[in-house]
Amino acid sequence: xxxxxxxxxxxxxxxxxxxxxxxxxxxxxxxxxxxxxxxxxxxxxxxxxxxxxxxxxxxxxxxxxxxxxxxxxxxxxxxxxxxxxxxxxxxxxxxxxxxxxxxxxxxxxxxxxxxxxxxxxxxxxxxxxxxxxxxxxxxxxxxxxxxxxxxxxxxxxxxxxxxxxxxxxxxxxxxxxxxxxxxxxxxxxxxxxxxxxxxxxxxxxxxxxxxxxxxxxxxxxxxxxxxxxxxxxxxxxxxxxxxxxxxxxxxxxxxxxxxxxxxxxxxxxxxxxxxxxxxx
Length: 280
Known about the structure:
Elements: H1 2-94, E1 98-105, E2 108-118, E3 122-125, H2 127-130, E4 133-139, E5 145-154, E6 159-164, E7 176-177, E8 188-193, E9 205-217, E10 220-225, E11 237-240, E12 244-252, E13 264-268, H3 269-276
Parallel strand pairs: 7-12
Antiparallel strand pairs: 1-2, 1-4, 2-3, 3-6, 4-5, 5-6, 8-9, 8-11, 9-10, 10-13, 11-12, 12-13
């Protein structure tokens, strides 16, 4: 009897262990399945987050594009505003360096224009403005008047260099010379000078136009412009919209008997630089 009892106890224990093991196994499978489902959800959330992150990048890119467009629009507005006031800015920049040149000689007197190109008082003008002069006076924007003497000239190219007899050490406002690379056909330009000389008293006159062409005329290269250049403007200054001097207004082409306007010639800065190198 004791043996039978012990056997049943063993069977009961084994059965219990089987049940417990099965239950634990079932729970393990359930946990594993739950874990797998959780991992799947995590993967899905990760992908969603990645998509959102990508969308965030797209949004950031769109914001950058929008910012760029806004900057471009602001620049356009600035350019338009500057264009409206560019001529006045150029005038303010160069006017202090534009002078009236009054000359007298044997039985004649005349007036023209000039430009201060060196702060020691060197003035560039046309040769025909001072040709035959025994007395030369220059009047500055401030109204100050100085006598001047001829330092050098080129009769063929029609240029001359004057020097004001000023107090030693005195400095004068100047223009800055451009280069030929700064001259483009079609670009806006401003001409400065004293048309009609003393017959039109007062400050310098400024006219605006464009570079019409680069023109060879009577053996010399000129900048052709439609900016008004009248008697008295000779020897003055023509600048681009950066205020750089591109040449000296010299003459207008008016064939005999022809009613022609706005064909005016300017001695280019290349010839000016070559000429000045001989004396300054």
